[in-house]
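Thread title: Can someone regenerate the structure for this chain?

I was given the following input by a collaborator and told the matching structure tokens would be attached. They weren't. Posting the sequence so someone can regenerate them.
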Amino acid sequence: MLRSYGLAGIMTLVLFSAPASAFDVVDHDYGGRVEPYVARLAQAQARGEPVRIGPVECDSSCTLYLGARNSCVSPGAVFGFHAPWVGGPTSGVVDPQMTAVFASAYKAPLRRIFLRHVRNTRGMVPGPLLRISGAQLASLGYRLCGS
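Best answer:
Regenerated them for you:
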């Protein structure tokens, strides 16, 4: 995934092509390839953009946005976490390096919950989603939007 592309090149392209504004997640986002999410997060960080995750479903790679220094979540948002994998959309193997990338994006309490979930799925790909609401994330140290 990340290893297959020059992450620095992707970040540079995005940094010079995206408008400077707040980054709002206002549509359901079910995730996908990691690279665009990492690049968008890097852009938001470089520009100091707030990352606001509205009352939407934010699954898989979308959860990387929680790693922004100035992110906030709507209490009504629902986040879906699973073990990252390499392979096809319905089969493959859990990728320990990508698991570490995701874990490092999360605050320590969420990181522990995420890693426990990955262990408990015992390599099942795609694994079940662990659902956590924005309100629950607030109890884990994430800032609610508007507060």
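The chain has one domain: 2-139.
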